[in-house]
């Protein structure tokens, strides 16, 4: 891999940074007092409110769970729609240009959220718009990377997208924790109520956190303008001369080089076969040749969500509070630590995806996640017996996040970007991404009610889903490690031997 290939992959992966920041930002914003009061989620009276924002004397003061569902799920609903649009836009305008457009849309959505009036609709529309961007780019960024990366390290480079998601979550957690600390209550001890009951609470904290999304959105749009178009997309549009120039640049050699010419020939043959078969349609995803891939991609993304990762990422402050930790630890310390674990753990996954292969990571990861979910539930039942059990519970959560981030975090995104033939690659990836966001939306919608009714027993449900994910990966996934995209297509079509 040369420096230009690395630069292209990392820059395109920054689409994941937007996704990660959007996921991470709401975890802290939802517990900011100014935000909660602004949207009438609770009342503020320093003489009656405890450290967790619950009115001690008036038991009728409750968080509005439907509101949490509404603003969290509106983002995921937008992402689902964005994934649908990605297929059309990615084929018509190209991967690179569509990613740029999506980044600009993300910036607009962030500004709308931060400028929201005292109405649920405006902030929900802002999150819907950012969701459109994230959904579209979640299809196109991994696809773009897989189309410009060399076969030997394609998995590692494509998993950079997941790495950037985790980095975005970390950045959101750190920025929001700092803002919350200095602007929310400002006591010496964050577990004591505000002393000046009548003092006005500034809305700067949550508006700043949400508007800040515009910066990475605009930055990604600018950076993508310097990157090349996908050579495979160019060939599909009959622009072979441009494609060979980009292949030469990506490989840091001349257009006459044997490697460049062999790659160009393989792409041209794939494009010729695509043209001979006519224009692709959604129905083709369910043809006898393709439907197995569609089935695998749909369910691999379904199981990624039902491992429970986004219940933890969206509502981790509430989960830690349920385990008995203070507001300071639940809101600032533990989310930052958890998000750092998520980020750092992605690196072993990037290494392991080429060392051990996609299928192995999926199988081992599912077993590990199931064990840690069961341990989290078991330890959480003992938290009333002392601090030791509370910390065991949260360590189990961190270990689960490690298991997810190093296996099921990056692998589905890599897998869906490489198993479809060129003619339906974006459409096939869109199916996987839509499955991801549809199930993400279900999780976001039912998550608050689930945690309220079941508490930490919810981890047993996710442990069961991890068991099903293990069975699915064992019997339905194939290995694509070390193969170029045309070889993967041949293997999935039954034209070449592959590893089951």
The SSE order reads HHHHHHHHHHHHHHHHHHHHH
Instruction: Kindly report the average pLDDT value.
Output: 82
User: What is the approximate shape?
Assistant: globular
Give the low-confidence spans: 45-53, 59-63, 185-192, 496-500
In total, the number of strands is: 0
- Strand coverage percent: under 5%
Count of separate DSSP helical elements: 21
The helix/strand class is: mainly alpha
What is the CA-CA span between the terminal residues? 28 Å
Mind summarizing the main beta sheet?
A: none
Radius of gyration, in angstroms, nearest whole number: 23 Å
Please give the share of residues in helix.
Answer: over 70%
Give short descriptive properties of this protein.
mainly alpha; 500 residues
Structural commentary:
With 500 residues, the chain is mainly alpha-helical. Helices cover 73% and strands 0% of the residues. It contains 21 helices and no strands. The chain has helices spanning 3-29, 33-38, 65-93, 95-114, 120-148, 154-158, 160-185, 204-211, 214-224, 231-236, 240-250, 258-277, 291-306, 309-322, 327-355, 358-380, 387-408, 411-418, 425-454, 458-476, 485-492. The longest helix has 30 residues, at 425-454. The chain starts with a helix and ends in an 8-residue tail after the last helix. The relative contact order is 0.14.
List the helices and strands and how they pair.
Elements: H1 3-29, H2 33-38, H3 65-93, H4 95-114, H5 120-148, H6 154-158, H7 160-185, H8 204-211, H9 214-224, H10 231-236, H11 240-250, H12 258-277, H13 291-306, H14 309-322, H15 327-355, H16 358-380, H17 387-408, H18 411-418, H19 425-454, H20 458-476, H21 485-492
